[in-house]
């Protein structure tokens, strides 16, 4: 019998709390990917290509995060039962709303990753805890980027030309591949 599914005290399907939370996180990451795609499309439809590129890239990055977790689950003999995605918002009136939503989303993901790290630590799952270190570091960067972008949009006072110029200058170059990033299930797209 698979050691990861061995006892009833591990909850549904015999999984540990950590593995159940990881499976849920796959859904959260795919939801974030879809939400970012919706934000990108909104900016794209309003001829704001620099902001659209940032959010299209974020969408791909979140997809890769889900694929990293799936790879970890597969490598640890946990069936990757892929959950559906949650609700996404598609109706907005002004650019600030979209960036504020992105920041809230990153803050929420940060809390989810912290809960995962706590579950791994509580269960003495040292490889799980180590796996999450990269995600914790990534979330610091994501929250900082969205916080700065929100500040720039607010300071722009509706002048999206200036915001686009700043985004082109500061955020347009794609991030170089992180050699410390966990491997994805399937090819990485970002």
From TrEMBL:
Location of region: Disordered: 170-190
Keywords: Iron, Iron storage, Metal-binding, Oxidoreductase
GO cellular component: cytosol
The protein's name in its UniProt record: Ferritin
SUPFAM superfamilies reported in the protein's UniProt record: Ferritin-like
Annotated TM spans: none
Gene Ontology terms: biological process: intracellular iron ion homeostasis; iron ion transport
Cross-referenced Pfam families: Ferritin
Domain Ferritin-like diiron: 12-157
Gene Ontology molecular function terms on file: ferric iron binding; ferrous iron binding; ferroxidase activity
Binding site for Fe cation: 29, 62, 65, 106, 139
Origin: domain of life: Bacteria
């Amino acid at each position: 019998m698979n050691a990861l599914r061995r006892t009833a005290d591990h909850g549904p399907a015999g999984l540990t709390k950590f593995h159940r939370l990881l499976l849920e996180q796959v859904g959260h990451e795919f939801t974030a990917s879809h939400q970012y795609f919706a934000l990108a499309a909104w900016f794209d439809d309003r001829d704001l290509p620099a902001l659209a590129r940032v959010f299209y890239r974020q969408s791909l990055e979140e997809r890769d995060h889900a694929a990293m977790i799936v790879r970890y689950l597969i490598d640890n003999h946990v069936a990757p039962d892929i959950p559906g995605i949650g609700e996404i918002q598609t109706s907005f009136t002004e650019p600030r709303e979209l960036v504020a939503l992105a920041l809230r989303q990153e803050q929420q993901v940060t809390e989810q990753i912290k809960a995962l790290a706590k579950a791994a630590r509580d269960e003495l799952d040292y490889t799980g805890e180590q796996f999450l270190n990269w995600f914790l570091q990534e979330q610091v960067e994501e929250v900082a980027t969205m916080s700065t972008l929100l500040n720039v949009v607010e300071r722009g006072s509706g002048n999206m030309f200036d915001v686009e110029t700043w985004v082109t200058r500061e955020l347009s170059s794609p991030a170089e591949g992180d050699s410390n990033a966990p491997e994805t299930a399937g090819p990485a797209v970002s």
